[in-house]
Amino acid sequence: MDHKVTVVTVEDEFRICPACGYEDGFHSMFKRDNGGVKWLFICPACHNIFDIGQRLKEPFGDP
Ligand SMILES: [Zn+2]
């Protein structure tokens, strides 16, 4: 399943869904992407996926 990811610029907070107006925050998902992992957010109400520019670097855990 490959949903469209909407890129969002965060001002003070990212809590309200820009697509449907749901106000109670997001589920998280992680997607492997060119040597890192993107940290994406899914609206629990409309299921749109948002990218606010967060990314995790591998390897995880102790260096
Ligand atoms: Zn929504």
Distance between the termini: 33 Å
Can you list the strand order of the major beta sheet? Answer: 1-4-3-2
Can you tell me the residue ranges where pLDDT is under 50 for at least 5 consecutive residues?
A: none
Instruction: Estimate the global geometry from the Cα principal axes.
Output: elongated
Helix content: under 10%
Number of strands: 4
Order of helices and strands: EEEE
Main sheet overview:
4 strands, mixed
Query: What is the mean predicted local confidence, pLDDT?
Result: 90
Based on CA atoms alone, the radius of gyration comes out at: 13 Å
Helix and strand content put the structural class at mainly beta
Ions and ligands? zinc ion
Assess the beta-strand content as a share of residues.
35-45%
How many helices does DSSP assign? 0
Describe the structure.
The chain is mostly beta strands. The chain has a domain at 1-26. 0% of the residues lie in helices and 41% in strands. A 4-stranded mixed beta sheet has the order 1-4-3-2, with no helix packed on it. Residues 17, 19-20, 22, 43, 45-46, 48 line the site of zinc ion (ZN).
